Amino acid sequence: MKKADVFVIASIIVFILSLAYITALGGLGPLPPINVRRIAINYLNLTYNTFTPYLTVFALESVTSIVWDFRGLDTLYETAVFYAAIIASIALYRGVYMDFKKNTEKTGLSPIAKTVTRISLILIPTVSASVALHGHLTPGGGFQAGSIATVVIVLSIIIFSRYFLPIHGLSKNKALLFRSIGLLGIAITSIALLLIAIVLGVNAYIFQNQAKIDAPLSFPSLVDNYILGGSLLFFNLFEFIAVAFGFTIVFLLLSISEEKVKKVTMDG
Fold it and tell me: Over the stretch 112-153, which tens digit does the pLDDT of each residue have?
């Protein structure tokens, strides 16, 4: 290991330990801060509050409640921006096709690295699915879960080879299909109660989760004593799909050889 690498690692360790020590001594001031804004207090009080059924989200995770309920439209626009970035990436690689190589045994890293990675390819999706499905109960959510799942893609490309995923059926177009399904699910969830309300002749709102005083419809908040958080479970699930396959598209495109990209862009 180079001296520079040792210095960097040692510096990071010293910084983390110093910050932890200062925090333990109260050097960063009161945690949490004393002057909490009123809007933050309302968010915390209304995340799960059975005494205010027309205002609460009926979820235990405040951050997810804020992201997909209190400010759901903002999150929808952010998701649309992320999707537009994926579309821009696809446009840049237009006409560049992923090449296939039938035999990948002689490519990639050592058999030991491949064996360990095969185990990880099972464990990582399990963890990411848990983060997505429990995002309304514990810290996490759809975006975090999708980002975790994408580690599988990166490992597969690095450990096995850039041919591994296309050979096993994961192409750019298939990833784009699942990405679109995730986004469609988010869109449908955001207007589901509104569509039902139109049919029933009652009032409802876009991104409505639980019933309001003038809008009687609700997503289910409890099933067999299991807290669902209403629409939050659906939003997390669909965002998990959208983010995971959105990043997958980007990494698949980046794995294409530079020579192939240059040839297509220059010829174009």
Answer: 888 888 888 889 999 999 999 999 999 889 999 999 999 999
Report whether 131 contacts 144 (CB < 8 A).
Answer: yes
As given in the structure block, the two tokens for residue 128 are 């990411």
- Tokens 């235990």 — which residue? 60
pLDDT of residue 109: 81
Residues whose CB is less than 8 angstroms from the CB of residue 133 and which lie 6 or more positions away in sequence, other chains included: 233, 236, 237
pTM, entire model: 0.82
Burial of 201 (0-12, 13-18, 19+ CB in 10 A): exposed
Distance CA 34, CA 107 (A): 57
Using CA atoms, how far apart are residues 167 and 159, in angstroms rounded to an integer?
A: 15
Residue given tokens 């002057």 in the structure block: 35
The Cβ of residue 18 has, within 10 Å, a number of other Cβ atoms equal to: 11
